[in-house]
């Protein structure tokens, strides 16, 4: 007997050919709808054509004969049935796997005798990977990349002051917010020093002495590196909120009706492309074991960051907005019905 033990099958089934061969008595029952591996649904009464297998043993059979001992390495099952120990041995393949060839007549004969249930034709070609195997950049695209190469370079200076510099306006009577720093391990202190050093080099922060002060948070990312954050929650509590509206996602999706081509623009360190309003930099002060620092650009984590950024984006793309561009904060989507 060739049995298929299938823990994903709720019921057990016997091959009609096998049942007739051993003279098994069958009883007619109401057919049940069975969904098979390819997703197709078949009406079955427990006896059906199972191809190469004599029977399929499902969860109902496994539950009936539990407990049992299974050795998946040796492909054996052992259980007790009516006081007797039953051993089942799986089909084992000895030696190294090998591929052989046969003619069509032999294949068809094996199919007719039910020795083959299914077959797949594979064509394998081994190729050495090439570092230059990527598709070449079309000349028109390369021309654009060359013409606007400065856009893709790392920034070497601060963005200019604009009309929409980020402001932090405190509620009337609010005192400067000053919080104690958190406790950090030596490893975390090394990470803080590294981030502070990088931000000093790019001039997005500067040393200061201020009555304000927020603690630093290090958040572990999926790749086991650290994300440098500042805990501005206390500052946000006493900040007057900017009620500038953010786009409604469903309405943005409505704008894409009929579009078939899409290009997404991803901004590098988006908040850091907006300057802090002069006089408000000290409110962004954060504390480290090295001292106090303040941001010269809009930091992540401040309560009015999203409204400020959306206001700037709306101003920059006021012309093409909704015609072939939609924006949501730093996510910019260019769409078109055709080339």
From TrEMBL:
Gene3D superfamilies named among the record's database cross-references: 3.30.70.270, HIV Type 1 Reverse Transcriptase, subunit A, domain 1
Superkingdom of this protein's organism: Eukaryota
Domain spans labelled Reverse transcriptase: 200-339
InterPro entries, per database record: DNA/RNA_pol_sf (IPR043502), Rev_trsase/Diguanyl_cyclase (IPR043128), RNA-dir_DNA_polymerase (IPR053134), RT_dom (IPR000477)
Pfam families, per the entry: RVT_1
Protein name as it appears in the record: Reverse transcriptase domain-containing protein
Source organism of the structure: Triticum urartu
